[in-house]
## 1
Amino acid sequence: MKKETILKFISGLIAALFFYAAFSKLIDYDKSVGEMRNQIFSATIANLLTWLIPTIEVTLTFLLLFPNTRKIALWASLFLLSAFTLYIGVVMTGVFGRIPCSCGGILKNMSYGTHLIFNLFFVSLAVLGLAIENGWILYNRLFYLKKERSLPDN
Amino acid sequence: MEKFKNALKSVNKFGLVLILAAAGIIFSQSAFKSKKAMVLWGKDSTVPSVGWRNLTGIAEDNGEAPHDPNTYRCVSNLEQICTAEFEDSTPPTSPSSIPDGDTNQGEFIYNP
């Protein structure tokens, strides 16, 4: 499989996740406000995050779709997904005295454990995408090794 | 203009297909979602052991004392939640509970 094809697959999956997350919030904005107020933040921060998070997610959706902006979008996605994952991890420890709902579309049916695994999967995808984009992993070497093995022995 | 056209041509088509699929999921979820019945709760901060109080059948009486028995007051104060609606059969203390957007804020006082 070509490097570009894998990168398109990874960035497409993350873009679809952000699109789903953003528009499932925007389509029922009142409910999203309630869901955010159910979290551990103060009302002021909750009100800010209710529109700030979907705005960032929609922006990243677009940036991930174009090759010129893909690299920076993958970095931003990694940062955002890591922040979400860290939040879930901290909430799961019960340090805030209560565990708020894991709201948001189909994700609200998941337990926090499943949600954490789901997020870690997408964090891994972002890391893999960046690794391929920046040439951190031996993608080409693996590819050539495979080619060498297929050569006939003389 | 040519640059813009080239950028449009280079768009990740696989990503677009996935986004269309995500849009389909969002649409199907919102189109077939049934509106659940809501129950009004008051957040009794004056009696911490009570916490949330189910206000079904309890009227609001914000008038002057003496207050009618078995009523509640919601003194205007934007710092805390007074009443909020939650989905029926899900108590506010459940982690899955989500107050609706029209949360009434103020200090909750129950008139026994």
## 2
Amino acid sequence: MSISLSHLTKRYGADTVVDDVTVEIPESSLTAVLGPSGSGKSTLLKLIAGLESPDEGRVVIEGDDVTDVDPRYRDIGFCFQHYAPFRHMNVARNIGFGLRVRKQPKDVIDAKVAELIELVRLDGKAKSYPAQLSGGERQRMALARALAIEPRVLLLDEPFGALDALVRTELRQWVKELHRQIKVTTILVTHDQDEAMEVADQLLIMHEGRIEQAGEPTELYERPATDFVHGFLGPTTMFKGVSVRPHDLELVPASEGAIEGTVQSIMELGFEVQVTVALSDGTAPWVQMSRNEFRNLHVEIGSLVSIRERD
Amino acid sequence: MDTPAKRPSSELGAPPARKGWRRFSSRARSSLGLYGGTSLIVGYLSIIVLIPIAAVAAHGFSFSIHTQGWGAAFWHWHLSTGFATFWNDITQPAAISAIRLSLWLSLSVAAINAVMGVAIAWVLVRDKFPGKWFLEAFIDLPFALPTIVVGVVLLFLYGTASPLKIDLFETWMGLMLALLFVTLPFSVRAVQPVLESLDGESEAAAKSLGAGGIRTFVWVVLPSLWPAVLGGFGLAFARAIGEFGSISLIAGGLGRTTTASNYIYNLTQGFLWTNAAAVSTALLVLSLLILIATNVFARRIQRRLA
Amino acid sequence: MNHTTRKWSLRLVVVLYLGLLVGLPVGYLFIKAFSHGFHAFWVEVTKPDAIAALKLSAEVALIAVPVNTVVGIGAALMLARRKFFGSRALTLAFDIPVAVSPIIIGVALVLAYSRIGWFGSWLASHGIQILFSPIGIVMATMAVSLPYVLRSVLPVLIEVGKDQEDAARTLGAGAFRTFWQVTLPAIRWGVLYGVTLTIARTLGEFGAVLVVSGNITGKTQTLPIYIFDAWDQNFDTIGSFAGALVLASISIVALIILSTLRARERKLHVDLA
């Protein structure tokens, strides 16, 4: 195990932001810490980096207990939500900062910086200052700066949060690709479940300072351990008194022995169609289906239909 | 054992660290820095400000500590008639008249500049005309100019040999002019940012409801400006009541133009330190009280607006 | 009264008030100086007493400004980056020197450190004299110019945030390197602003210095005191005027630097309070 956290707890006054977190993060994985804002996920990241110190518990990285080690000596690459570029240094000097701290010879630094600039596709920007870069470029510079010290662990705090939608999807793919190349154990914090499902090979769901569930994305999606995980990872609707995924329900023509109801509303979202059905027991579950399924169903508002769980 | 590729830090080497330093936990080092730094700063602050101010108050009440040789660490406490002496010192007719003069001058100066401050800030923020930047630059001038320079210039301009034939030497008007000059930036700069932050939407709303310009100003703009105006008033008052340099020359040597700070200075020239301490204490308490009062009042208004 | 008349009368009132109150005296200072001719001015400022006063002022500034800059930056770092018990009180204590009359600051220093003061006899027994000496002048100047660096740097430090410093730490930088290579460059304009204010205040300080200095010509006279003394004691109005002109020129240069810096950094403002 690359990182293991045991009984990690952090309090701010009366608030327990991180509450008795025990978790193992596998070597070379790309783990996403997913949770709503205020769930303590950023604090957890800072505890691993040493930028915050825990009230209780230990942080072990590759077998070394680093709980009382200064962030300087943890060999961690940290990317901040707003990138924290050194604004008075150009891209090359930003990236080379950690190497200068480690008193590397100038030619080693230059070679390494050039290599990283190419890796993060900032060719030609070496002499630019952060103010002259776009958000995505700044993000990539911050990544290169963190990677320069060849960290044991890469920590990304809401790495795509401050970017616009188009750049965000592009950068997600790129980070995934980058991770495939360099295989450094990476933890990223996000509140966006699509982002987490897309990028990560391990998920860690946090809620109110606690870990709700950890595991592979599909496993969590299919076998959520708690209602919170179930609700957080995808859409849900109430059917027969339990929470189910709306794509696990289906509508069939009325009078086939299933529960009957009246179509209350129809929302067509391109490929996907959401149909809400009012049942006689007063509940109104909604069903997610493809456009084709909807066409074949021939229903409109007011139609009588039957609803059941898919096989 | 991990491969070098997975433990690349061994290749680059750890960041340089002083020997032994790493043994302290990061938390221990961080509190060491906090306590070390804070005690240095508090120490410096105590030596140059806090202890001396305490000494004034103590001397004002004739309460003194004499150190009799540090080695013996022997402190001799001496408490004499205390409040009686203090009261006697500050109720001297000359002291009373000096404090009274300072009080009414400072209050009127702060009031005049509060009104003018709003007018000036209004013109600087809302009006546009060529040469406005020049006015803007003027505002800070009284702050940047050393007070004695203001004193010399005003004495030249309004002294006995006034080229304008306006002789304000040894008159309250001369004092007032000097005080208006030095307190001007406080009144303007307190109001200006607040006026800038008002977006004009509520004004537009008031006008659309048929309110005239003056009515809009009084009923819509002024209520949001009040805390800032009061804040500026407090600052100007505090500055005026303590002011010395700019008025020291034009005040001359007459009793009726001797302000509180002038009076204290005169006492020090006669080496009457205990009397000086008593009047200083009174003045200190007075200006702190007014400052606190305006602060509390301004905060209360702010809360009502929020 | 219609809108236009109101606008013009307000302009007129403001321009007249500023013109008469501020413009007239300051303009007069420079006009008068030139009417005497540059030569007369030069003769006055090169008198030995004037030179000595200028020198003492410069020496005092050379000690007080660096000390207050270091203390101000240090205190700003503490207040911006740490939460600790008493931080509110510390901020307040830094503001005392501007809320209190400089004359009282002078009296306070005398009552604490002169022969008649709390620590006077002990200091005297160790050969340290505060009253009537340059040490007293330096202390008085330090006290009155204390808050300016803190007040200029603190808002900039809060605006810049802690992230760059944290980033430097995770990259392995120690406290010193982080300060010199990351924090200081980020707040440099704020520091320069505060230092300029401190210099202006240091060179111009009058009341507090007058009380502690004892006003000994050529020995404990700073430039402001020389100006005062030339007029008050020696009736040397031209000498006094020349000195005032030197100080006024310095403060106008300071003012230009300040407004240039303000144009760069919006967080900076003349927070005179």
## 3
Amino acid sequence: MSTDDVVISLREIHKYYGDGEIRLHVLKGINLDVKRGEFIAITGASGSGKSTLLNLLGCLDRPTSGEFILAGRDVAKLNDDELSTIRNEEIGFIFQSFNLISALNVLDNVQVPLLYGPHVTSTKTARCRELLASVQLDHRLDHKPPQLSGGERQRVAIARALVNEPVMLLADEPTGNLDTKTGDQVLELIERLHAEGRTIVMITHDPEVAMRAERTVNMRDGLMFDVERP
Amino acid sequence: MIRSKQIELIRLGVTNLLGYPLRTFLTTLGVVFGVGSVIAMLALGAGAEQEILEEIGRLGIQNVIVNSVKPPETNKGNEQRSWISQYGITFTDFKQIKSTVPGLKSVIPVHMSRKQAWFGSKKVETTIYAVQPEYMSLFDLRTAMGRDLTGVDGAELARVCVLRAGLLKSLGIFGDPIGLTIQLGEDQAYEIIGILEDDKFRGYAREALAIDSSNSEIYVPYQTILGRHGTRSISRSSGTFEATDIELSQIVIEVTDLDNVLIVARMLERIFAINHEDRDYDIVVPLEALAQRRKTQQVFNMALVAIASISLLVGGIGIANIMLATVTERTKEIGIRRALGAKRHHILAQFLTETTTISTLGGVLGILLGLGLVQVLIFFTGWTAKITFNSIALSLSISMAVGIVSGIFPARRAAYLDPISALRHE
């Protein structure tokens, strides 16, 4: 496996919270490689360190020690502004609770990441419309999130995640707030994105959902284990 | 085509504010009233200043006016007091000024006397101003009807007069007054040759020229009064006599060069201090008065604006308060934006844009309110008010500054929220 193909590489990642007596060792040496175009699921019970790992992968937090290479850069050593840039350019977030801005309409929501990039061009705004069309929401551009159904909201969020052509899509329980049917539609959309060649890291507690990924790893007590597929 | 991100930020800020129209409106109110009152105060201040300028300007800043005043210590030498009270500017003073003070364009003597004017059986108390034609032109006393006093009138000791339009009615003259004859004092018949425009000297100017507020001045040639009547005057009122002998009631000194006005004023003070034992004169220097009145007015204006600014301050605190609440309320949104790549300065800029938009909007509304308020005040009080471009520019920049200042604290708070906990915030 050449290094070019590895988009995400975690080496001996440790994460501690707090100090002294109450110091918590949450991640106890995580190693993980995700190849370009791979669809991986991370499972684990609450308290397993899953959320902490998600925050690290999402560049919202830094590991206490270890090396985290994302698209060729060691993110563990970046400052707040640089991490923001990485989040903006390299990571597409898909959240359990969609996390749309309710004061903004659908189109503006999708355009939010553009605001924090280098500049807003008309090609990019045109791309927002295309993306919304590709998730069948081009007729809802002027709607505000509260006027949309859960499935529609998640599709807006997915369109938003794709705006800056990130190297990785990071989905945190993408179906957690959806009923089975719409959840399934969202998963199909994610599978379609995978089929288009995107790298997807999905965090879920649901083994059935995890089965939609190519590979599953399981977090337990701050450590990561490969899961054998039947 | 590149669309500026600043414009986009402002657009989104406005979108956000419009999302809560009532709250936005209420938040702007503080600034609206603040700016409104600042505008009104500045306008009234500028109006008052202009009024002073016009008032004193009418006296001519190149002039110095000396008035005769009744000395305060008349009861001092009771036993040697003559039956005729004698005080004020003398012909000696006048000659001395004319011959010794350099750089004067003209020195105009004025003699005033209280007299009754009669027309038929109608009688009115008036003040007779014996003046030279220069006096009339110097103080812009123009006739609306008939003709002005001329040098020839004086040389001929002509019994002619120019009077205020207001007097005609009280004298019972309703037709064409020109050519009619009125009685001034005991037995002097004067022909009306001109009627003055019905404007008045106001406030300070009236005081400086020793004109009373009755608007019943009668102007006659100086030489006529001096030559025919002399300077003594006896006025009879409610059974008592009052005899006065004031040689000159007033001297108006016109200085050629504006730079010399104050020097001339000092010289006059010296002359009068030497010639007069009592302080029976009053030297009025419009230039000095102007500077002083303006200074007083400016201090007053500043005080007014400072008071008005308090409401602006309160408005700013209101914005800061609402914004702090908004930051808490929008913690989740801040988390989302941070996750999507917003740097701290982006969040800072977003909140500052919102507060500045609110306060600028408040500023614009406040200016409109202020303009309206000024019109209402003018309508109901008749005060002079002047809205200057500067006051509008000042108010607008103050209101923008209020937005920035009141936004800084909440915006910093928003920018330094931890993105992870902000994202989890419900």
## 4
Amino acid sequence: MLEIEEKLQAELARGIEALQTVADAESLEAWKQEFLGKKSLVMQVYGSMGKLAKEERPIIGKAVNQAKAGLEATLAEKEEAIKAASQQEAFTKETLDVTLPGRKPRRGRIHPLHLTLRQIYRIFGDMGFQIYRSPEVETDDYNFTFLNMPPYHPARDMWDTFYTDKEGVVLRTHTSPGQVRVMRERAPENIRVILPGTTMRYEQLTARSEIEFIQVELLVVGKGITFADMRGTLNDFARRTFGENARTRLRPSFFPFTEPSAEMDVECFVCDGEGCGVCKGTGWLEILGCGMVHPTVLRYGGYDPAVYSGFAAGMGIDRSTLMRYHIDDIRHFRNNDIRFLEQF
Amino acid sequence: MKAPLSWIKDYIDLDGVGIEEIANLLTNVGLEVESVQLVGVEKPEGKLKNKYFGLLWDKEKFVVAEVVEVNQHPNADRLTLCELNDGTGITTVLTGAPNMFPYLGKGRLEQPIKVAYAREGALLYDGHQPGQVVTKLKKTTIRGVESRSMICSEKELGISEEHEGVIELDADAPVGMPLVDYMGDVVYEVAILPNMARDASILGIARELSAVLGRPLRLPEGVALEKGGAIAEKVGLEVRNTELNPRFMLGMVEETQSHQSPYWVRRRLSLAGMRPIDALVDATNYTMLEIGQPLHAFDYDLLRERAGGKPTIITRTAYEGEKITLLDGSELQLDPQIELVTDTVGPLSIAGVMGGSETGVRAETRNLLIESANWNFINIRKTLSKTRINSEAAYRFSRDVHPALAETALSLCLKRVQEWGGGEVVQGVLDEYGKPYVDTVNRISAENIAEVLGQEISLEESTRILERLGFTCWMEGRELVAKSPATRTDIESGIIGQRNLIEEIARVYGYERIAEKRLSDELPPQVGNPGLEAEERIRDIMVSIGLQDTLAYRQTSPEREARLNIGRKAPEGLAYVRLKNPITPERTVMRRSAKATMLELLEYNAKFRPGLALFELGPVFLPVVGEILPHEALRLSIGMTGAWDMASWDRPQSPAMDFFDLKGVVEALLDGLHLEGVKFQAVEHPSFHPGKCAEVRVGKEILGVMGELHPQVKKNYAFGQNPVLVAEFDGEALVRLSNAVFTNRPISSYPAMVEDIALIVDESVPADELEALIWQAGGKLLVDVKLFDVYRDARLGEGKKSLAYQLTYQAFDRTLTDKDALNIRNRIVKQTKNTFGAVLRSQ
């Protein structure tokens, strides 16, 4: 073996060893200068190749190539390692406390009563009901007389009415006036509608009672509509609203515009009927009033009660929304306190 | 209506029917039980569906006892020591009850006083504290005398609020018997539906139970009545208007006395919620509660005195200017609508509503004249709405009472007066029955029932139900004929009468036994509700932009809406829907302005959050000349103030919102609704900053107005430094002009070219017009124009501004060349120069 060959082998071994202690880009650069730079042994050997004897050239050429390749391969490995290390260091520096809060974009919410309304629209929509709306300021005729409550009828006491300074004009106390309005518009066609809207009653404003609230009325008119249809439809509604296993009861009640009349209770979903604050200890929650449309109302609507029949139901959604979300005060709905609304 | 169970049991056998079951039966038949008061008895077991309250009388601790001697307390004038026998021996019991004093010093009492006695350790209500506070009876020493037990008042036992004295039980009370066995009770508080006023009576409630349980009803019996007779010599009767007074009866008891009724009567009255007065008044009240017919009692001698001889009772309407002083001492001005009971001197009572003060029963009353009458309920209602009087009588008469009940009631009442007050019933009654009531007769078939209910109920079963409710039934062919009972007026005739009967049958049969079906009739013609759909779309868009949905009160006041104006001065002549009976001075009218509502919502919430963005969709109420009802115009209002983005832990919040934040929201909304041809135009509006207000229009139609609140108007509200931005839109126009269906633009697959140009124009050139011209000049290869800078500088020249646009060019069929771009650009520069004198700003 030529002396130069040995030198190159030693250089390679020295280079590999020296590279082991290199840990950063700076010392790596120094290493490159020393072992692969212009003044390095390897490069000097290349530079002196021309001066070599012809027979020595291939031998030394091979040796120097081997040494260079060995040094470069080791270098590449090292460079990779250093890059990975510095990347790792950067990651460590950039590591976030992912438990810090995110930046909240402004989020709009639908008002809770509108949420409830939409749910009702959906359920009755599935059953083929259309939506019909009618005025909030109503005539006494539509609010009372056409609903089988002539002036001074005892049933007028059931609603505490806001009167306007215009004779015969009131703020509607219920959505029922819409019954006669939709009948007059659609007679003699079949009717299957819900009538949502704001209604107003002269009551003290307390955590449990409001002067303005939203009702949804239901009206079906056709040939051969029965109490059994009503019971089925309303039970379907209750099950879709309160769950498949919801238990309901229908008990007699009175509304001048229906006969027979009933009220529907659902077993309290807060206490499972055991009795609690929400159901006032009775285990039942009153959810709606209903009944077979009174013949007089059908007549006012333009339907012959000997041929047509129908049922109607009405529910207040403020109260059911209160129960659904355990809201403590009915006035929140119209006070629109942002701290309340933001929770939906 | 409060119904003690012990009283109900006078008329129906309820053996084997539990307390809870009775409550459920009543509710299921239409008499909703609102609460159940337990008077001494134990709460039933099991899963209870009714609301119970009350005091349990422990059998060991509460017993019937008798006081055999009453002595003075040695150290206290106002206390007595009673020698009491509770069945186990004699004890001394201390009491301050005033009703024991009359027995002081009488030695051994010939007739011992029966009392309700509570032993040491009994749990009872504290008589000295307001309300019902349970306390345990403990040994104490009062003025040197030891006291372990107690003679009870009604309050202490939870019967009534009465604590003036201790209860004196009836003489036949068995000493030593647990008190609960002697007089324990259950009181059902029942809600009476307007069409079931007949059940505002114990007998009415018993009749419902009889129907639903199928058990017979025991009717109470009074004295036999015969028309005319001796009474006609004592008093005259004249009914002037039989429409208003269909029936009027008079009966009389002589030589009776106004002393206490038997204790069982007083207890029942108390439990039913009526204060016992004396035997005579109690007899009328008891009879009213029993069968539902109100009665009125006159002191006959006072009437005689007034008339100066034989009195004559006259029923008539009031004369103009007439007055009456009522039992409660108030004086009332009368008018000719009000029906009265009078004598020849003047008014005695407001018919069916309340008695006068001058001729009522008093302690000295010996001869009692009893009125049992029937009144037109509509006229009674008019009287009530005018006088605002509440009374038990008015409650019943205003819901219509069957005239036959007048007779039953008089017969029962005469008997009670005689039994409880003593004396003799004067022979005969006066009876003016000018308008006999005809009970309706209805016929129904099994098909009629099935058609309404969707459930077959046989005519046999229907007959049984109706008969138990008091109807007289028979069959004619395949039809059931039912004559209504002479106790109720709510059963009409014809198709409505049929319905009435079906309701009676169904509610007693049980609503829960009726089948449950799904609607199977043909679906009606399908009618959409585009208005509602568009509203919901608006709501969704607003929420998606980040605004909060709200819901406004319709009622407000003109003063509140006037805050929209400088100096709170509203324009003259604003027409409002005004309330006749507002609930508060804050809410006297229906709102006209959605802006006003929105500003109140912003004002209220501004203190809770540094930035607000709200909207509300709802009607305003605009009276229309010549129309009965106002126009309910849909409005969309938007309100924004403060920062849009909240501060986070590493970033400050965004700057306070200004006009262009509001405009951006409005543009996003209109874009979402696919409105075409929208223009914003500067306008002046009294509520807005004169330089920061725009009208939004499509063509000639004004959609709404938006802007920053005028600083002077802002002072009317509690706002801080930040600008307050408000918009109010005509919701109907938005709905009408919105396009649910629109043409989607294709997307080119060729690359787009983007370049910027800046044009210097006069300040007066509106940005939207310049932009419109750029679009026009650019032609169809110009696909986007984006303003990215507005720059003003002295170097541009006085009154000049530079508007910088990013322009995007693109074709659908090829890649554009630099030459294409140059052409477009040149057209834009040229045309804007020609029209607006625009100068291309050198780069």
